[in-house]
Amino acid sequence: MLVVTKFGGSSLSCATQFEKVKNIVTSDPKRKIVVVSALGKRDSSDTKITDLLYILHAHLKYSVPYEDIWNMLYTRFVGVQKDLGINYDITKDLDALYKELNKNISQDYLVSRGEYLTAKLMSSYLGYTFVDAKDLLVFNYDAKMDEGTTEKNVKNAFAKYGTIVVPGFYGAFPNGSIKLLSRGGSDVTGSILSKCLNVSLYENWTDVSGILAADPRIIDKPRAIKEITYAELRELSYMGASVLHEETVFPVQQLNIPINLKNTNEPSHPGTLIKNVCTDESNIVTGLAGKKDFLSFNISKDHMSNEIGFLRRALSIFEKYNVSIEHIPSGIDSFSVVVAGSSVEKCQYELVTELRKELEANVTVEKDIALVAVVGRNMAKRSGICGTIFQTLGQEKINVKLLAQGPEELNIIIGVASKDYETTLKALYQNLVA
Ligand code: ADP
Ligand code: ASP
Ligand code: MG
Q1: Cys bridge to 291: 105, 240, 241, 336, which one at CB 3.0-4.6 A?
Q2: Ligand 2 in contact with 30 (CB < 6 A)?
Q3: pLDDT tens for residues 280-296?
Protein backbone atom coordinates (compact mmCIF):
# COMPACT_ATOMS: atom_id res chain seq x y z
CA MET A 1 0.00 0.00 0.00
CA LEU A 2 1.36 3.37 -1.03
CA VAL A 3 0.36 6.93 -0.25
CA VAL A 4 1.25 10.15 -2.07
CA THR A 5 1.47 13.06 0.37
CA LYS A 6 1.36 16.58 -1.02
CA PHE A 7 2.12 19.58 1.18
CA GLY A 8 0.98 23.06 0.13
CA GLY A 9 2.93 26.27 0.65
CA SER A 10 1.07 27.03 3.87
CA SER A 11 2.47 23.75 5.30
CA LEU A 12 6.00 24.78 4.29
CA SER A 13 6.35 28.38 5.39
CA CYS A 14 9.21 27.92 7.89
CA ALA A 15 11.38 25.33 9.66
CA THR A 16 8.67 24.66 12.29
CA GLN A 17 6.27 23.69 9.50
CA PHE A 18 8.94 21.42 7.97
CA GLU A 19 9.18 19.67 11.35
CA LYS A 20 5.42 19.05 11.33
CA VAL A 21 5.73 17.65 7.81
CA LYS A 22 8.52 15.29 8.86
CA ASN A 23 6.45 14.02 11.81
CA ILE A 24 3.54 13.34 9.48
CA VAL A 25 5.62 11.61 6.80
CA THR A 26 7.59 9.42 9.18
CA SER A 27 4.55 8.40 11.22
CA ASP A 28 3.28 6.19 8.38
CA PRO A 29 5.68 4.05 6.29
CA LYS A 30 3.19 4.11 3.39
CA ARG A 31 4.06 7.79 2.84
CA LYS A 32 6.89 7.19 0.38
CA ILE A 33 6.12 9.83 -2.26
CA VAL A 34 6.17 13.46 -1.10
CA VAL A 35 5.14 16.39 -3.32
CA VAL A 36 5.85 19.94 -2.21
CA SER A 37 4.78 23.44 -3.25
CA ALA A 38 7.09 26.42 -2.74
CA LEU A 39 7.52 28.02 0.69
CA GLY A 40 4.24 29.81 1.50
CA LYS A 41 3.18 32.68 3.73
CA ARG A 42 4.29 32.71 7.37
CA ASP A 43 1.44 35.08 8.23
CA SER A 44 -1.20 37.03 6.34
CA SER A 45 1.15 39.95 5.63
CA ASP A 46 3.87 37.71 4.17
CA THR A 47 4.46 37.00 0.44
CA LYS A 48 4.54 33.51 -1.09
CA ILE A 49 7.83 32.55 -2.74
CA THR A 50 5.93 31.90 -5.99
CA ASP A 51 4.60 35.46 -5.97
CA LEU A 52 8.08 36.84 -5.26
CA LEU A 53 9.41 34.89 -8.24
CA TYR A 54 6.71 36.28 -10.54
CA ILE A 55 7.59 39.78 -9.32
CA LEU A 56 11.30 39.09 -9.82
CA HIS A 57 10.61 38.00 -13.38
CA ALA A 58 8.68 41.21 -14.11
CA HIS A 59 11.57 43.28 -12.71
CA LEU A 60 14.05 41.46 -14.92
CA LYS A 61 11.86 41.78 -17.99
CA TYR A 62 11.43 45.54 -17.61
CA SER A 63 15.03 46.08 -16.45
CA VAL A 64 13.98 47.40 -13.05
CA PRO A 65 16.45 46.91 -10.13
CA TYR A 66 15.69 43.55 -8.55
CA GLU A 67 18.26 43.21 -5.75
CA ASP A 68 15.74 43.78 -2.94
CA ILE A 69 13.44 41.05 -4.17
CA TRP A 70 16.32 38.68 -4.77
CA ASN A 71 17.56 39.31 -1.23
CA MET A 72 14.12 38.50 0.20
CA LEU A 73 14.11 35.19 -1.68
CA TYR A 74 17.66 34.39 -0.74
CA THR A 75 17.13 35.15 2.95
CA ARG A 76 14.00 33.02 3.18
CA PHE A 77 15.55 29.94 1.59
CA VAL A 78 18.82 30.19 3.49
CA GLY A 79 16.89 30.89 6.72
CA VAL A 80 14.94 27.64 6.42
CA GLN A 81 18.08 25.64 5.61
CA LYS A 82 19.92 27.08 8.63
CA ASP A 83 16.97 26.62 11.00
CA LEU A 84 16.65 22.99 9.91
CA GLY A 85 20.39 22.46 10.35
CA ILE A 86 20.63 20.31 7.21
CA ASN A 87 23.73 19.59 5.09
CA TYR A 88 22.28 20.67 1.75
CA ASP A 89 24.15 23.84 0.80
CA ILE A 90 21.34 25.84 -0.75
CA THR A 91 23.60 28.87 -1.27
CA LYS A 92 25.31 27.04 -4.14
CA ASP A 93 22.02 26.53 -5.99
CA LEU A 94 20.94 30.11 -5.22
CA ASP A 95 24.26 31.55 -6.45
CA ALA A 96 23.97 29.51 -9.65
CA LEU A 97 20.42 30.81 -10.17
CA TYR A 98 21.56 34.38 -9.54
CA LYS A 99 24.03 34.04 -12.40
CA GLU A 100 21.20 32.95 -14.71
CA LEU A 101 19.07 36.04 -14.02
CA ASN A 102 18.71 38.17 -17.12
CA LYS A 103 16.10 39.93 -19.20
CA ASN A 104 15.30 36.84 -21.27
CA ILE A 105 15.07 34.20 -18.55
CA SER A 106 11.91 32.15 -19.06
CA GLN A 107 9.15 32.97 -16.58
CA ASP A 108 8.17 29.30 -16.25
CA TYR A 109 11.74 28.30 -15.44
CA LEU A 110 12.30 31.08 -12.90
CA VAL A 111 8.98 30.59 -11.11
CA SER A 112 9.45 26.81 -10.97
CA ARG A 113 12.61 27.34 -8.88
CA GLY A 114 10.33 27.95 -5.86
CA GLU A 115 9.15 24.33 -5.77
CA TYR A 116 12.56 23.05 -7.02
CA LEU A 117 14.49 24.55 -4.10
CA THR A 118 11.77 23.72 -1.55
CA ALA A 119 11.85 20.08 -2.70
CA LYS A 120 15.63 20.01 -2.35
CA LEU A 121 15.35 21.30 1.22
CA MET A 122 12.68 18.72 2.01
CA SER A 123 14.58 15.85 0.42
CA SER A 124 17.65 16.62 2.52
CA TYR A 125 15.55 17.00 5.68
CA LEU A 126 13.61 13.75 5.19
CA GLY A 127 16.47 11.73 3.72
CA TYR A 128 14.28 10.95 0.67
CA THR A 129 15.73 11.21 -2.88
CA PHE A 130 15.03 14.44 -4.79
CA VAL A 131 13.52 13.68 -8.20
CA ASP A 132 13.11 16.67 -10.50
CA ALA A 133 9.58 17.04 -11.90
CA LYS A 134 11.10 17.98 -15.27
CA ASP A 135 12.25 14.35 -15.57
CA LEU A 136 8.81 13.01 -14.70
CA LEU A 137 5.96 15.12 -16.10
CA VAL A 138 6.34 15.43 -19.87
CA PHE A 139 4.20 17.74 -22.00
CA ASN A 140 3.80 17.61 -25.77
CA TYR A 141 4.34 20.87 -27.62
CA ASP A 142 0.54 21.41 -27.73
CA ALA A 143 0.80 21.64 -23.88
CA LYS A 144 -1.13 18.38 -23.39
CA MET A 145 0.53 15.88 -21.08
CA ASP A 146 2.25 12.87 -22.58
CA GLU A 147 0.58 10.46 -20.19
CA GLY A 148 2.42 7.32 -21.34
CA THR A 149 5.92 8.78 -20.98
CA THR A 150 5.02 10.46 -17.69
CA GLU A 151 3.76 7.19 -16.22
CA LYS A 152 6.88 5.33 -17.33
CA ASN A 153 9.14 8.03 -15.85
CA VAL A 154 7.31 8.06 -12.51
CA LYS A 155 7.30 4.27 -12.20
CA ASN A 156 11.03 4.07 -13.03
CA ALA A 157 12.02 6.79 -10.56
CA PHE A 158 9.99 5.25 -7.76
CA ALA A 159 11.34 1.75 -8.49
CA LYS A 160 14.88 3.12 -8.45
CA TYR A 161 14.76 5.23 -5.29
CA GLY A 162 11.89 3.90 -3.13
CA THR A 163 11.30 7.13 -1.18
CA ILE A 164 11.14 10.36 -3.17
CA VAL A 165 10.44 14.09 -2.92
CA VAL A 166 9.08 15.73 -6.08
CA PRO A 167 8.56 19.46 -6.65
CA GLY A 168 4.97 20.25 -7.67
CA PHE A 169 3.63 22.78 -10.17
CA TYR A 170 5.80 22.04 -13.21
CA GLY A 171 7.00 19.57 -15.80
CA ALA A 172 8.90 19.93 -19.06
CA PHE A 173 8.54 19.79 -22.82
CA PRO A 174 10.46 17.03 -24.63
CA ASN A 175 13.40 19.43 -25.17
CA GLY A 176 13.70 19.86 -21.39
CA SER A 177 12.37 23.42 -21.16
CA ILE A 178 10.19 23.94 -18.12
CA LYS A 179 6.41 24.23 -18.34
CA LEU A 180 4.44 25.48 -15.36
CA LEU A 181 0.96 24.24 -14.53
CA SER A 182 -1.62 26.89 -13.65
CA ARG A 183 -1.59 28.48 -10.18
CA GLY A 184 -2.14 26.01 -7.36
CA GLY A 185 -0.98 23.23 -9.69
CA SER A 186 1.01 21.20 -7.13
CA ASP A 187 -2.34 19.62 -6.23
CA VAL A 188 -2.44 18.31 -9.81
CA THR A 189 1.16 17.03 -9.64
CA GLY A 190 0.18 14.98 -6.57
CA SER A 191 -2.84 13.62 -8.38
CA ILE A 192 -0.80 12.67 -11.48
CA LEU A 193 1.82 10.82 -9.39
CA SER A 194 -0.97 9.05 -7.49
CA LYS A 195 -2.42 7.81 -10.75
CA CYS A 196 0.92 6.77 -12.24
CA LEU A 197 1.73 4.64 -9.19
CA ASN A 198 -1.88 3.54 -8.61
CA VAL A 199 -1.53 4.35 -4.90
CA SER A 200 -4.17 3.50 -2.31
CA LEU A 201 -4.60 7.11 -1.14
CA TYR A 202 -3.68 10.65 -2.20
CA GLU A 203 -3.22 12.84 0.88
CA ASN A 204 -3.36 16.59 0.34
CA TRP A 205 -2.10 18.47 3.40
CA THR A 206 -3.01 22.13 3.78
CA ASP A 207 -3.93 24.69 6.47
CA VAL A 208 -7.63 23.86 6.98
CA SER A 209 -9.10 20.72 8.54
CA GLY A 210 -10.96 19.67 5.42
CA ILE A 211 -13.03 21.19 2.68
CA LEU A 212 -15.48 23.61 4.22
CA ALA A 213 -19.05 24.09 3.09
CA ALA A 214 -18.18 27.66 2.03
CA ASP A 215 -15.18 29.95 1.70
CA PRO A 216 -13.96 30.63 5.28
CA ARG A 217 -12.82 34.09 4.19
CA ILE A 218 -16.49 35.04 3.68
CA ILE A 219 -18.47 32.75 6.00
CA ASP A 220 -17.49 32.61 9.66
CA LYS A 221 -16.52 29.04 10.67
CA PRO A 222 -18.32 27.11 7.95
CA ARG A 223 -19.15 23.45 8.50
CA ALA A 224 -16.40 20.98 7.52
CA ILE A 225 -17.38 18.40 4.92
CA LYS A 226 -16.59 14.81 6.00
CA GLU A 227 -17.15 13.14 2.66
CA ILE A 228 -17.66 14.47 -0.83
CA THR A 229 -17.78 12.90 -4.29
CA TYR A 230 -15.28 13.70 -7.06
CA ALA A 231 -18.14 15.24 -9.03
CA GLU A 232 -19.17 17.56 -6.19
CA LEU A 233 -15.57 18.60 -5.59
CA ARG A 234 -15.14 19.34 -9.28
CA GLU A 235 -18.22 21.61 -9.20
CA LEU A 236 -17.08 23.40 -6.04
CA SER A 237 -13.46 23.88 -7.09
CA TYR A 238 -14.39 24.94 -10.63
CA MET A 239 -16.76 27.49 -9.14
CA GLY A 240 -14.16 29.01 -6.84
CA ALA A 241 -13.50 26.79 -3.81
CA SER A 242 -9.78 27.41 -4.15
CA VAL A 243 -8.76 24.85 -1.54
CA LEU A 244 -7.95 22.32 -4.29
CA HIS A 245 -6.98 23.06 -7.90
CA GLU A 246 -9.99 22.46 -10.16
CA GLU A 247 -8.14 19.80 -12.22
CA THR A 248 -7.12 17.72 -9.18
CA VAL A 249 -9.89 15.15 -9.39
CA PHE A 250 -9.34 13.95 -12.96
CA PRO A 251 -6.19 11.77 -12.70
CA VAL A 252 -7.21 10.02 -9.46
CA GLN A 253 -10.84 9.63 -10.46
CA GLN A 254 -9.83 7.38 -13.37
CA LEU A 255 -8.52 4.79 -10.91
CA ASN A 256 -10.94 5.53 -8.09
CA ILE A 257 -8.12 6.63 -5.75
CA PRO A 258 -9.57 8.57 -2.79
CA ILE A 259 -8.16 11.98 -1.82
CA ASN A 260 -7.90 12.85 1.86
CA LEU A 261 -7.61 16.59 2.48
CA LYS A 262 -5.97 17.16 5.86
CA ASN A 263 -4.53 19.91 8.05
CA THR A 264 -0.76 19.88 8.71
CA ASN A 265 -1.45 21.89 11.88
CA GLU A 266 -4.06 19.41 13.16
CA PRO A 267 -3.00 15.99 11.82
CA SER A 268 -5.32 13.99 14.08
CA HIS A 269 -8.41 15.58 12.49
CA PRO A 270 -9.84 13.22 9.83
CA GLY A 271 -10.31 16.05 7.30
CA THR A 272 -12.36 15.42 4.16
CA LEU A 273 -12.47 12.20 2.15
CA ILE A 274 -13.10 12.65 -1.56
CA LYS A 275 -14.24 9.55 -3.45
CA ASN A 276 -16.50 8.23 -6.14
CA VAL A 277 -19.62 7.38 -4.13
CA CYS A 278 -20.75 8.80 -0.79
CA THR A 279 -23.74 7.37 1.04
CA ASP A 280 -24.27 9.97 3.78
CA GLU A 281 -27.63 11.66 3.18
CA SER A 282 -27.73 13.92 6.22
CA ASN A 283 -27.12 17.12 4.24
CA ILE A 284 -29.04 18.10 1.12
CA VAL A 285 -26.59 20.83 0.16
CA THR A 286 -22.93 19.80 0.42
CA GLY A 287 -21.42 23.24 -0.08
CA LEU A 288 -21.41 26.64 -1.75
CA ALA A 289 -18.77 28.31 -3.88
CA GLY A 290 -18.66 31.32 -6.12
CA LYS A 291 -16.67 33.66 -8.28
CA LYS A 292 -16.95 37.27 -9.34
CA ASP A 293 -16.03 38.96 -12.59
CA PHE A 294 -18.31 37.34 -15.15
CA LEU A 295 -19.78 39.16 -18.09
CA SER A 296 -23.01 38.55 -19.98
CA PHE A 297 -23.41 39.19 -23.72
CA ASN A 298 -27.17 39.73 -24.12
CA ILE A 299 -28.25 38.97 -27.68
CA SER A 300 -31.77 39.63 -28.98
CA LYS A 301 -33.47 39.73 -32.37
CA ASP A 302 -37.13 39.61 -33.43
CA HIS A 303 -38.17 36.13 -34.64
CA MET A 304 -34.80 34.71 -33.60
CA SER A 305 -36.55 31.48 -32.60
CA ASN A 306 -37.45 30.87 -36.30
CA GLU A 307 -33.88 31.30 -37.55
CA ILE A 308 -32.47 27.77 -37.58
CA GLY A 309 -28.77 27.73 -36.70
CA PHE A 310 -28.79 31.18 -35.04
CA LEU A 311 -27.33 29.94 -31.76
CA ARG A 312 -24.67 27.93 -33.57
CA ARG A 313 -23.60 30.99 -35.57
CA ALA A 314 -23.38 33.08 -32.42
CA LEU A 315 -21.36 30.48 -30.56
CA SER A 316 -18.97 29.99 -33.46
CA ILE A 317 -18.02 33.67 -33.11
CA PHE A 318 -17.11 33.08 -29.46
CA GLU A 319 -15.13 30.03 -30.58
CA LYS A 320 -13.27 32.13 -33.15
CA TYR A 321 -12.08 34.42 -30.33
CA ASN A 322 -11.13 31.39 -28.22
CA VAL A 323 -13.62 32.31 -25.48
CA SER A 324 -14.90 29.55 -23.24
CA ILE A 325 -18.61 29.79 -22.40
CA GLU A 326 -19.96 29.28 -18.88
CA HIS A 327 -23.75 29.51 -19.33
CA ILE A 328 -26.38 30.30 -21.95
CA PRO A 329 -29.67 31.33 -20.29
CA SER A 330 -32.32 31.82 -22.98
CA GLY A 331 -35.68 33.41 -23.76
CA ILE A 332 -37.69 33.01 -26.98
CA ASP A 333 -36.10 35.72 -29.10
CA SER A 334 -33.12 36.40 -26.88
CA PHE A 335 -30.37 34.65 -25.02
CA SER A 336 -27.28 35.58 -23.03
CA VAL A 337 -23.81 34.16 -23.19
CA VAL A 338 -22.08 34.31 -19.81
CA VAL A 339 -18.28 34.19 -19.85
CA ALA A 340 -15.41 34.88 -17.45
CA GLY A 341 -14.34 38.54 -17.67
CA SER A 342 -10.69 37.53 -18.04
CA SER A 343 -11.48 35.51 -21.19
CA VAL A 344 -12.65 38.58 -23.16
CA GLU A 345 -10.25 41.16 -21.71
CA LYS A 346 -8.51 41.67 -25.03
CA CYS A 347 -11.32 40.97 -27.51
CA GLN A 348 -14.58 42.25 -26.01
CA TYR A 349 -15.10 45.11 -28.49
CA GLU A 350 -14.21 43.12 -31.60
CA LEU A 351 -16.46 40.32 -30.40
CA VAL A 352 -19.46 42.63 -29.93
CA THR A 353 -18.90 44.25 -33.33
CA GLU A 354 -18.72 40.89 -35.04
CA LEU A 355 -21.78 39.53 -33.22
CA ARG A 356 -23.80 42.60 -34.29
CA LYS A 357 -22.62 42.40 -37.88
CA GLU A 358 -22.86 38.66 -38.46
CA LEU A 359 -26.11 38.08 -36.59
CA GLU A 360 -27.80 41.43 -37.34
CA ALA A 361 -28.94 41.35 -33.73
CA ASN A 362 -28.99 43.69 -30.74
CA VAL A 363 -26.04 42.97 -28.51
CA THR A 364 -25.44 44.54 -25.11
CA VAL A 365 -22.85 43.66 -22.50
CA GLU A 366 -23.57 43.45 -18.80
CA LYS A 367 -20.52 43.50 -16.53
CA ASP A 368 -19.82 42.66 -12.90
CA ILE A 369 -21.79 39.47 -12.57
CA ALA A 370 -21.00 36.99 -9.82
CA LEU A 371 -21.93 33.32 -10.01
CA VAL A 372 -22.73 31.29 -6.92
CA ALA A 373 -22.96 27.49 -7.06
CA VAL A 374 -25.14 25.48 -4.68
CA VAL A 375 -23.72 21.96 -4.86
CA GLY A 376 -25.05 18.70 -3.45
CA ARG A 377 -25.42 15.12 -4.66
CA ASN A 378 -28.52 14.80 -2.45
CA MET A 379 -30.33 17.66 -4.23
CA ALA A 380 -31.33 15.43 -7.19
CA LYS A 381 -35.05 14.83 -7.38
CA ARG A 382 -35.76 16.91 -4.25
CA SER A 383 -38.30 19.69 -4.50
CA GLY A 384 -38.19 23.09 -2.86
CA ILE A 385 -34.52 24.03 -3.17
CA CYS A 386 -35.02 26.66 -5.85
CA GLY A 387 -37.98 27.92 -3.83
CA THR A 388 -35.72 28.44 -0.80
CA ILE A 389 -33.11 30.16 -2.98
CA PHE A 390 -35.63 32.64 -4.43
CA GLN A 391 -37.23 33.26 -1.04
CA THR A 392 -33.84 33.84 0.62
CA LEU A 393 -32.60 36.23 -2.04
CA GLY A 394 -35.99 37.97 -2.24
CA GLN A 395 -35.84 38.69 1.49
CA GLU A 396 -32.39 40.22 0.98
CA LYS A 397 -33.72 42.24 -2.00
CA ILE A 398 -31.13 40.64 -4.26
CA ASN A 399 -32.05 40.41 -7.94
CA VAL A 400 -31.38 37.02 -9.55
CA LYS A 401 -29.91 37.57 -13.02
CA LEU A 402 -29.70 33.95 -14.00
CA LEU A 403 -30.49 30.55 -12.67
CA ALA A 404 -29.20 27.32 -14.18
CA GLN A 405 -29.21 23.68 -13.19
CA GLY A 406 -27.04 20.92 -14.65
CA PRO A 407 -28.80 17.79 -15.95
CA GLU A 408 -27.48 15.67 -13.07
CA GLU A 409 -29.16 18.09 -10.62
CA LEU A 410 -25.85 18.21 -8.78
CA ASN A 411 -25.61 21.99 -8.86
CA ILE A 412 -27.71 25.13 -9.13
CA ILE A 413 -25.92 28.22 -10.41
CA ILE A 414 -27.23 31.65 -9.48
CA GLY A 415 -26.05 34.85 -11.16
CA VAL A 416 -26.22 38.10 -9.16
CA ALA A 417 -24.55 41.51 -9.36
CA SER A 418 -20.96 41.34 -8.05
CA LYS A 419 -21.80 43.88 -5.34
CA ASP A 420 -24.36 41.38 -3.93
CA TYR A 421 -21.91 38.44 -3.94
CA GLU A 422 -20.98 38.31 -0.26
CA THR A 423 -24.57 38.95 0.91
CA THR A 424 -25.83 36.21 -1.41
CA LEU A 425 -23.33 33.67 -0.06
CA LYS A 426 -24.06 34.55 3.55
CA ALA A 427 -27.84 34.41 3.11
CA LEU A 428 -27.75 31.11 1.18
CA TYR A 429 -25.35 29.59 3.69
CA GLN A 430 -27.69 30.53 6.53
CA ASN A 431 -30.79 29.08 4.87
CA LEU A 432 -29.43 26.07 2.96
CA VAL A 433 -26.35 24.85 4.78
CA ALA A 434 -26.08 25.97 8.41
P1 ADP B 1 -2.01 25.22 0.10
O2 ADP B 1 -0.97 26.26 0.35
O3 ADP B 1 -1.97 24.10 1.09
O4 ADP B 1 -2.05 24.74 -1.31
P5 ADP B 1 -4.28 26.93 -0.46
O6 ADP B 1 -4.08 28.31 0.05
O7 ADP B 1 -4.09 26.68 -1.90
O8 ADP B 1 -3.39 25.93 0.42
O9 ADP B 1 -5.74 26.42 -0.07
C10 ADP B 1 -6.19 26.46 1.28
C11 ADP B 1 -7.05 27.69 1.51
O12 ADP B 1 -8.21 27.62 0.67
C13 ADP B 1 -7.61 27.81 2.89
O14 ADP B 1 -6.69 28.42 3.77
C15 ADP B 1 -8.87 28.65 2.67
O16 ADP B 1 -8.65 30.02 2.98
C17 ADP B 1 -9.15 28.56 1.18
N18 ADP B 1 -10.50 28.08 0.86
C19 ADP B 1 -11.34 28.63 -0.07
N20 ADP B 1 -12.49 27.95 -0.13
C21 ADP B 1 -12.40 26.94 0.78
C22 ADP B 1 -13.27 25.88 1.17
N23 ADP B 1 -14.49 25.72 0.64
N24 ADP B 1 -12.84 25.03 2.12
C25 ADP B 1 -11.62 25.17 2.68
N26 ADP B 1 -10.76 26.15 2.35
C27 ADP B 1 -11.14 27.03 1.41
N1 ASP C 1 3.36 27.55 -5.64
C2 ASP C 1 2.40 27.50 -6.71
C3 ASP C 1 1.36 28.59 -6.52
O4 ASP C 1 1.47 29.40 -5.63
C5 ASP C 1 1.80 26.15 -6.88
C6 ASP C 1 1.01 25.64 -5.70
O7 ASP C 1 1.01 26.23 -4.63
O8 ASP C 1 0.36 24.60 -5.86
O9 ASP C 1 0.44 28.69 -7.31
MG1 MG D 1 -3.09 25.24 -3.06
Answers
A1: 240
A2: no
A3: 888 999 999 999 999 99
